[in-house]
Design goal:
It is a multi-pass membrane protein. With about 70 residues, the protein is an all-alpha fold. The chain has three helices and no strands.
Length: about 70
């Protein structure tokens, strides 16, 4: 898989998680507690600057964020 394709998949997954949370909060979509916790943890890991590899490090900073989403 090339870099551009994986970047698009990563961004699509972020958008999907946000849409799922929005629909869940509007009670249009049910998410069980375990899955809800995983989605929130993945999104929190993305926005928190204190993670395994700090985001201010060019290129490498977001690789661990992407890996968290691929696992999530």
């Amino acid at each position: 898989m090339d870099k551009k394709s994986s970047k698009i998949n990563f961004l699509d997954k972020v958008k999907l998680f946000v849409a799922m949370l929005r629909d869940h909060s509007n009670q249009d979509f049910y998410i069980d507690d375990g899955t809800l916790g995983s989605i929130i943890a993945c999104l929190a890991y993305l926005v928190l600057p204190t993670d395994l590899v700090p985001d201010f490090i060019p290129v490498a900073g977001f690789t661990d964020d992407a890996a968290a989403f691929m696992l999530g």
